[in-house]
Amino acid sequence: MLDNVAPIGRHAKPAPVLGAVARRERIARNAVRYFAFLFIALALVFAVVAAALKDVFFFRLATEALIYGGFAMGVDLLLGYAGLLSLGHALFFGLGAYVSGLVLKEWTASFWLALGTVLVAATVVGSIAGIIAIRARGVYFALITFGLAEVASKVVFNTRQLGGSDGIIGIPVVQANFLLFTVDSSHAGSFFLLVLVLIMAMYFALEALLQTPAGRLVVAIKANEHRVPFLGFSAQRYKLLAFILAANVTAMSGALYPMLRGFVSPELMFFQASGNAVITVILGGVGTLIGPLYGSVILSALKSIVGSYTEHHLIVIGVLFMISVIFFPKGLIGYLRPRLEAWLSRKERP
Amino acid sequence: MGGFIDTLQFVLAPQVVNGLSIGVAVILMALGLTIIFGLLDVINMAHGEFYALGAYLGVSLAAAGVNFWLMLLLVPLIMAPIGYLFERTLIQRVFHHKDRHILTLLLTFGLAIIMEDLFKVFYGPQALTAATPIEGASEIAGMFFPNYRLFLMAIGTAIIVVVWLVVYRTSLGAMVRAAAFDKNMASSLGVPVSHVYAGTFAFGVALAALSGVLLAPVYSVFPTMGKDFILMAFSVVIVGGLGSIKGAVIAGLVLTQIQAIASLYISPSWTDPLVFAIMVAVLMVRPQGLFGRLGHA
């Protein structure tokens, strides 16, 4: 009888199928990593060209694209890995921007202190919002995050101490101290590189975290939430973990915003900002983390190109978004990745 | 004692009536949303824009010299085929996908963005005003109410009753409820499910557009008019239970009354956060809302 049962546990020989799965996963991981390296390379080429032309405008635009890309990366962590659609992630972007703006203006113009305070604030608010939001699933999760962000944005909008509808203006220029050198946020080129380093550091940190057992469980929740408890893990706990992590990624991106623009406005927390991040994720590629960065660059470029012809660029973006949802629901990187994977595995075989 | 009755008559009562007229308007919006979700599982993010489109159509038809009463008939008749086509050509494309909840939500969200910008292209960003078809005010128990608001409440209530009767008392409504309960079984019994789906979506869209025409004389007509209103309608639908007609009516009345009465005591700009906080609280305690879904008892 027992002979028919496949051996389990540590005495089991690794089945050849498992090796194939591991190999496929490694190729998939490498493929996404190539897209990340390509992104960095493209950003550096852009920086060299822009610096040679002594440009400021495009540096600022590209920095903003990176910041919004980081915002969308947080949304992708929830949607692409935990399977949770957040329609209110602007709450955390706004939180990061406001906390960072307040620290810089009212307390001290210290780059690291601003980021540290945002980290603490995002963890606290993310935990509270997460405990509320993860009780719901599917569309209810989308609606509860939407409601939470609406409450928060209305409160900020009505609070005179936070500048009300004007937001916070006159945020001073910051010097990021790296011991050996300092980066001035008013210098467009070096601030672009600083933001690039921070956003990519968050990307590689998330990629590494998703390889840990806790990260694998987050992915397992998306695959089959009801099966996770049978494996002996609390799905809720890992969902909360993913939520707090996503809140932090987005808030850290938000913290960079006032350093770039010198002001914070309540529009950053409105639904439009959350919706924009979701569009970015879908266009760039759900569940790739690097996709949202590509998506943000594409969207920013599109906005400034179409915007120079007409102020009604939302029609173009809306049509593109709908086409993407219907025909390419995996987005740009999601579409290109299998092709790169196929090429990589062909290259590896002989 | 006299002071108390005065407060009741001149402060509280007008506020309650005011809240009631907003409540009827919100319920009209919420009904379309909740029926579409109850049957198709689609969160229609473009519902507010369909409402705005109804109002804009009303403005255009009025400019072309069409009578207001004829408009109430014409606008839903124009909008229903648009809703039908949208469901058949776009929503059905992603309807059988694993993530259809999210994909249909995103699809209607994309449509909402496009429509809002199209309004700006064709009508400009400024607010337009629609003429009030019924002038004057009536005195009821020592208080004055604009006649159009009274008319709005009457016709709104009538529409709600008609929707209720259609869904619960006609064979058409039985088909809709059957398809919502079990689409495969309904299909085997000869219900043309795909047409019921598209037809229900068209019905919801027509209802939103009709509310747009009705409310245009009270609120002005501008590109984001749907967005401000849809938030309230969403809260109502969630508190009442997504997919529940009874829930939409009851929650619509309760929430708008809370908003109206609370604005006597706190600044009106804080009543919106209050309503959203109630919505979030209900989602936490009872995510499925207060009442059950369409087709489920």
Give an overview in words.
The complex is a heterodimer of chains A (350) and B (297). Chain A has 350 residues and is mainly α. Chain A is 72% helix and 3% strand. Chain A has twelve helices and four strands. Chain A has helices at 16-52, 57-81, 90-107, 111-133, 139-158, 188-211, 213-223, 235-261, 271-284, 291-309, 313-327, 331-348, and strands at residues 168-169, 175-177, 182-184, 263-264. In chain A, the strands form two sheets. Chain A has a two-stranded antiparallel sheet. Chain A is globular, with a radius of gyration of 21 Å. Chain B has 297 residues and is mainly alpha-helical. Chain B has a domain at 19-130 and 147-223. In chain B, a hairpin with a 2-residue loop joins strand 1 (137-140) and strand 2. In chain B, helix 1 runs antiparallel to helix 10, helix 2 (47-63) runs antiparallel to helix 3 and helix 2 (47-63) crosses helix 8. Chain B starts with a helix and ends in a 12-residue tail after the last helix. Classes of the chains: A mainly alpha (350), B mainly alpha (297). Chains A and B meet through helix 5, helix 9 and helix 11 of A and helix 3, helix 4, helix 9 and helix 11 of B.
- Write the element-wise H/E pattern of chain B from the N-terminal end onward: HHHHEEHHHHHHH
Low-confidence stretches of chain A: 1-10
Q: What is the overall pLDDT average of chain B?
A: 86
Q: What helical percentage do the residues of chain A reach?
A: over 70%
Helix count of chain B, per DSSP?
11
Approximate shape of chain B: globular
Percentage beta strand of chain B: under 5%
Order of strands across the main sheet of chain A: 1-4
How far apart lie the N and C ends of chain B? 47 Å
Share of helical residues of chain B? over 70%
* Global mean pLDDT of chain A: 87
Largest interface: A-B, 36 and 41 residues
Oligomer: heterodimer
- Specify the number of helices of chain A: 12
Structural class of chain B: mainly alpha
Secondary-structure class of chain A: mainly alpha
